[in-house]
Amino acid sequence: MQPQTIWNFSAGPAMLPQEVLLQAQKELLIWNNMGVSVMEMSHRSPEFEALAEEAKQDLRDLLNLPDEFEILFTAGGAQAQFALIPMNLLQAEEVADYVITGNWSQKAANEAKRFAQINVAADTESLHFSSIPDVSTWKLNPAAKYLHYVSNETVHGVQFDVAPQVNKPLVVDMSSDFLSRPVNFSGIELIYAGAQKNIGPAGLTVILIRKDLLAKCTERVPAVFSYPTLEKESSLANTPPTFVWYLASLVFKWLKRQGGLQVMQERNQHKAKILYQTIDESNLYVNKVDPRYRSKMNVIFDLKKEDLLPQFLAEAKLAGLLGLKGHKVRGGVRASIYNAMPVEGVQALIKFMQEFEQNI
Amino acid sequence: MQPQTIWNFSAGPAMLPQEVLLQAQKELLIWNNMGVSVMEMSHRSPEFEALAEEAKQDLRDLLNLPDEFEILFTAGGAQAQFALIPMNLLQAEEVADYVITGNWSQKAANEAKRFAQINVAADTESLHFSSIPDVSTWKLNPAAKYLHYVSNETVHGVQFDVAPQVNKPLVVDMSSDFLSRPVNFSGIELIYAGAQKNIGPAGLTVILIRKDLLAKCTERVPAVFSYPTLEKESSLANTPPTFVWYLASLVFKWLKRQGGLQVMQERNQHKAKILYQTIDESNLYVNKVDPRYRSKMNVIFDLKKEDLLPQFLAEAKLAGLLGLKGHKVRGGVRASIYNAMPVEGVQALIKFMQEFEQNI
Fold first, then answer.
1. In Å, how far is B135's CA from the nearest CA of chain A?
2. Average pLDDT score over residue span A16-34
3. Where in chain B is the domain with CATH 3.90.1150.10?
4. How high is the pLDDT of residue A1?
5. Residue B295 carries which DSSP code?
6. Inter-chain residue contact B244 with A239, CB threshold 8 Å
7. Catalytic residue among A173, A177, A254, A302
8. Residues in chain B closer than 8 A to A115 (CB atoms)
9. Beta carbons of B241 and A238 less than 8 Å apart
10. Which architecture characterizes domain A259-359 according to CATH?
């Protein structure tokens, strides 16, 4: 028997706003009075170009993006950028600082090492990625062209509360908290985010890049992944993933209707707060991340009685709570509560957690 | 007023089978009894992994793919592969032969030159890409590791009738005629195809690669684009464009229901035949491509009275015939008649062309 309501806590591809899916469903065969689906349209048609431009403007509005920044859309996910960022921004002999605070920043640094010189300025693996050390302790390389960090670690549930204050241009992987809160662009050189958390379905990456950086990019990158080329051609040089872009455009409109990123931040803070409170007040669930750096997007926790984990996950699934299994490198439970997850979903999870604890 | 039926001759993103769009629409919010959309599912969920495997098997069945080949799915389009193929298969000092028969093979060679040594074995630009010279005249480099060609040129409407017989492993861009006819895999080392013609929406590329080639790939490629990594991780190492992959899986099922690639070839030959016949018998329309190499997928033609072209395109659009404007580098008219275009669409175009000619 199917439970009445399904709540999808998948880390990504993740839940999308119901309104967005309903609109996509309604106009799947006939978009914009064109008589064809948006996914059957040429990316060079005036209609698709208008959609692309409007999506960019909506994103610019949502972020209150300074004019110094350009928005690029590119195919694929953020992992590709782990290589393409150093390839675009560095020559092979040049150096960048990387801060390792979890699985994704570790992967980013390991991949970047294959294409440039990487200095690990800080690494919290020995702390089981449970906190972020003070910037004053980081070992920055004065020659480094940028400092890379991951603003939210989906696997380890660690999130920067504010951007680190270093005298170095920042390159930030915001894949999992992009659009979940306003961004202070001071010190930022480049932000990138895979779509499948807060933007839309998988297959698209958004890049925000300072325009003055475009002139300094290298030419050792495949043309379709070159930031100056993407900028010059308005991200339409080669065929982009048009349907994913279209869905992202609907998500941007939805975010505007919700009231923008300040409203989303308040909602996200509230959802995270009641969930962490449930964990902290229980005798069964535990989260060891330094409260200051607890993720508002991916709430991870363990069961003190570890052998109950399979039962917890199985019963949760039966109760309509999907995608709660932790990432394979971390284990435990992970509840991803991105923008599209309403507070009712978090409340349903809390209710289930409390009942599960009472019944064991 | 909207015409009753719309026929979409867009070169790509292109028309999709109506049955496929209807199924996608029906299950857009609730897929496979999961209570969520397929685009909200983790790519590592057993359900998505099963979809991915079944799609591969269906493709293997359709192509009658020899066991020596592996199927890879990767994000983005075929243009990315213009760089990623030489990066995967060649060291910078190694050489490959390229045959230039139109816009896309020219682009492929120009991009490959940035990453390896490229020998242009033949180039038909001086013939306005209107034919393909005999293989015996090609200037092959004995040291070349492979020979690259584009089996169908969408811009110039030129298509290889059979694979060239050279004593060299073949690397083939089949983006625009993949799945339109059976493939003879003799001599083939790698085939690649962007999705947005005959596979599904834009954002996905299919690669068929000989397994013995995987061990010889270089390590100078970003990890997510490395063929051995894609193979090892069943193309799920990083988050793939899951919704596009899902739609491709529906297209493969649709092709099976149609009777397979032999049936598609017969239909495609018939559609092309009646359209070229109309052109050849008219006093207004002209196609100068050597009949042996005329594309069955992209029928290009010009109006002998060139100044009538805007009127032709405008009236066609009013008659519900979309996407007929030729590519900007070629101009004229282009009717793309991929698998999803039924003969009725081609008949409607023919009727319009004949009436237009009578009425001027």
1. 30
2. 96
3. 259-359
4. 45
5. -
6. no
7. A173
8. 222
9. no
10. Alpha-Beta Complex (3.90)
**Beta strands of B174-284 (E only): which ranges?**
188-194, 204-210
Active site residue B104: yes
- Tell me what pLDDT residue B1 has: 45
Nearest C-alpha in B relative to A41: B13
- The answer to whether B33 contacts A2, with C-beta atoms less than 8 Å apart, is yes
Q: Which of A73, A150, A252 is nearest to B75 (CA)?
A: A73
Rounded to the nearest 10 degrees, the angle between the axes of helix B78-89 and helix B103-112 is 40
Q: Using CB atoms within 10 A of its CB, is residue B85 exposed (0-12), middle (13-18) or buried (19+)?
A: buried
In angstroms, the separation between the Cα of residue A137 and the nearest Cα of chain B is 31
Mutate to test the interface with B, among A26, A243, A247, A337 (most CBs of B within 10 A): A243
What does the pLDDT look like over B195-234, one tens digit per residue?
Answer: 999 999 999 999 999 999 999 999 999 999 999 999 999 9
| Burial class of residue B328, CB neighbours in 10 A (0-12, 13-18, 19+) | exposed
- Residue entry with tokens 């109760």: A319
pLDDT in tens, A300-309: 999 999 999 9
The residue to which tokens 């560095």 are assigned: A90
> Interface pTM (ipTM) of the complex?
0.96
Instruction: Single out the catalytic residue among B58, B97, B123, B173.
Output: B173
Q: A224 and B79 in contact by Cβ < 8 A? A: yes
Residues of chain B contacting residue A242, judged by C-beta atoms under 8 Å apart: 13, 201-203
Residue A104 is among the residues annotated as catalytic for this protein: yes
- The single-letter code of the amino acid at B105 is S
**How far apart are alpha carbons B249 and B253 in whole angstroms?**
6
Q: Are A169 and A145 spatial neighbours (Cβ–Cβ below 8 Å)?
A: yes
Closest CA to B189 of B69, B29, B58: B69
Beta bridge partners of A321: A7
Determine, for residues A28 and B21 on separate chains, whether the beta-carbon distance falls below 8 Å.
yes
| Cβ contact A14–B40 (<8 Å) | yes
Dihedral sign for Cα atoms in the order B255, B256, B261, B262: negative
Chain centroid to Cα B227, Å, comes to 20
Residue with tokens 């302790």: A137
A197 is catalytic: yes
Cα separation of B301 and B224, whole Å?
40
Residues of chain B with CATH 3.40.640.10: 23-258
Tokens of B101: 């028969």
- What does pTM read for this prediction? 0.97
* pLDDT value at residue A215: 94
Instruction: Spell out the CATH class of B23-258.
Output: alpha beta
Q: Nearest-CA residue of chain A relative to B82? A: A222
Residue B72 with chain A: CB contacts under 8 Å = none
Q: Are residues B222 and A80, on separate chains, in Cβ contact within 8 Å?
A: yes
Return the residue matching tokens 């149609």: B258
